[in-house]
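Project channel, design review

CF: Before we commit to the Streptococcus macacae NCTC 11558 constructs, I'd like one complete example in the thread so the newer folks can see what an input/output pair looks like. Taking RNA methyltransferase, RsmD family.
RD: sounds good, go ahead.
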Amino acid sequence: MRIVSGSYGGRPLKTLEGKITRPTSDKVRGAVFNMIGPYFDGGRVLDLFAGSGGLSIEAVSRGMTSAVLVEKNRKAQAVIAANIKMTKEASKFQLLKMEAARALKSLTGAFDLVFLDPPYAEEEIIKTIEELCERRLLSEEAMIVCETDKAVVLPEEAAGLGIWKQKIYGISKVTVYVR
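CF: and here is what came back for RNA methyltransferase, RsmD family:
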């Protein structure tokens, strides 16, 4: 795995062995960013189930200003830390070593781009979107990018946000919510 494009483009990403995380493939990550960007002019990223950190590192590589990565698994945290170090711009990243639900309670400020790829997709995604809205953690133009198994059916609307784009890539489905 590697960073697909931007200022870190081509640099290798470490991933976790086994089934603890499901890293987004280079192909799917590239397609996601072509769908939502592909490049940005600043903004904050939140990656609530960060895994290897590839999505949020890719977003910063493509022009987002900073990213908050949330991961509860210790082995995944070590992989994220190594991937952040690879960027040579560690000050742009904050790694929160905790569960997503706990992180949501401590976060402040608005995010422009949110990545959700939770282990229990449907119920976790809807609950998380509702809490993000309730806690006013989304900017007016925020995009929420959800990655699920292609069989998962997400509702057309959640907490005042609606599906803007949705595409299937192999076994994965990417759903983007906006206001």
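RD: helpful, thanks. The helical segments are 26-36, 54-61, 74-87, 100-106, 121-134.
CF: Residues 26-178 form a domain with the Rossmann fold fold (CATH 3.40.50.150).
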